[in-house]
Design a protein that fits this description.
This protein has helices spanning 8-12, 94-99, 101-104, 160-169; strands at 21-24, 29-33, 43-46, 51-56, 60-65, 68-69, 77-86, 122-128, 132-139, 150-152, 156-157, 175-178. The protein is of the alpha+beta class. The protein has a 10-stranded mixed β-sheet with strand order 1-2-5-4-3-12-7-8-9-11, covered by helices on one side. A two-stranded parallel ribbon has the order 6-10. A hairpin with a 3-residue loop joins strand 8 (122-128) and strand 9. The longest helix is centred in the C-terminal third of the chain and has 10 residues, at 160-169. The radius of gyration is 16 Å and the shape is globular.
């Protein structure tokens, strides 16, 4: 479950004070130094930076560039990884069908996982206590041009090779913090 006592104030500062960055040219990943006291092995999404931080021991984090939810659809809060799926199937949510029936209506019965699926190669399903599945995901994408932009229906998305790498490291029940939009 969500670790409520670990590093709440320290992790809130992750987004705002990245002291140093080291880029691994082999993988394209960026390792950053974060404030002391941040709990390791958590996911923090900072929409103002289009950044996802996977915190590590010794005050470091791996920084990924992500696409985020467009205005009005991004939901800040504290979540946990309640499910993980490889090549997940996808079905538009009821909200998506209401907002854009012409676009999502033909897909109302969903689509199987695969290269053309909008969830990409892997998905981490975000849950909240008492609410269950929030329909928010950290997932791959079949459209890498959406990375670094606010275009999704609320989810955070990475390029497929990076979500595969992250997916393999993140266990169920991992704490996930989506910071308010406007956080930089």
């Amino acid at each position: 479950m969500i670790s409520r006592s670990q590093g709440r104030s320290a992790t809130a500062a992750i987004a705002y004070r990245v002291a140093e960055r080291i880029e691994d040219r082999r993988t394209g990943l960026v390792v950053v130094t974060i404030p002391a006291g941040a709990a390791p092995y958590e996911i923090h999404v900072v929409p103002g930076q289009f950044a996802l931080f996977w915190t590590q021991p010794n005050n470091t984090a791996i920084r990924y560039t992500v696409g985020i939810g467009r205005p009005g659809l991004y939901e800040a809060g504290e979540f946990y990884v309640g499910a993980k799926k490889e090549w997940p199937s996808w079905t538009p949510t009821p909200g998506m069908l209401r907002r854009e029936p012409q676009k999502y209506g033909p897909l109302r019965n969903g689509m199987p996982g695969g290269l053309s699926n909008p969830l990409g190669a892997r998905a981490l399903y975000l849950f909240q206590p008492g609410r269950g599945d929030t329909f928010l995901r950290v997932h791959g994408t079949n459209d890498p041009t959406t990375i670094g932009r606010a275009v999704s229906n609320g989810c955070a998305r990475l390029v497929n090779n990076q979500i595969i790498q992250l997916f393999n490291q993140v266990p169920l029940d991992t704490r996930v913090v989506l910071y308010p939009n406007g956080a930089t």
